[in-house]
Amino acid sequence: MEQQPPLQQQIEQMIDYIMKKCLWQFHSRSWDRERQNAQILGTTTALLCDEPVELSTPEQRCYWADAVCLAEAYRERFAWLATMSHHEIRALMQGVHQRLDFLTISGSLNAELTDRHY
């Protein structure tokens, strides 16, 4: 059986996939990015943990569509996910969320994110 990489390496592998393959990370305003990161990664976490997902609004269904693609890609690329408990997956995805928020929002040098006229 393949050994799991350390948590930080898992987070970076998952972030690398998002940065290279997911166009949704490029919203032009920080509040859009905050909401989209929380919704897509939260829904992805629920899918990876086999939990129900709320789909009553068009917005929820839109985030769900991106989350389904992300969850499927993660399961396909990272076999070590299948060996993790739901608790471990939630902790991992929380780390992914924090890192993505840093890279795309708080650590970003893109001045357009906070330009109130944009």
Automatic annotation (TrEMBL):
Keywords: ATP-binding, Iron, Iron-sulfur, Metal-binding, Nitrogen fixation, Nucleotide-binding, Oxidoreductase. The keyword Iron applies. Its EC number is 1.18.6.1. Its cofactor is iron-sulfur cluster. It comes from the Bacteria. It catalyses: N2 + 8 reduced [2Fe-2S]-[ferredoxin] + 16 ATP + 16 H2O = H2 + 8 oxidized [2Fe-2S]-[ferredoxin] + 2 NH4(+) + 16 ADP + 16 phosphate + 6 H(+). One of its GO terms (molecular function) is nitrogenase activity. Pfam families: AnfG_VnfG. The key enzymatic reactions in nitrogen fixation are catalyzed by the nitrogenase complex, which has 2 components: the iron protein (component 2) and a component 1 which is either a molybdenum-iron protein, a vanadium-iron, or an iron-iron protein. Hexamer of two alpha, two beta, and two delta chains. This is Nitrogenase iron-iron protein delta chain. The lineage of its organism: Bacteria, Pseudomonadati, Pseudomonadota, Gammaproteobacteria, Aeromonadales. The gene is anfG.
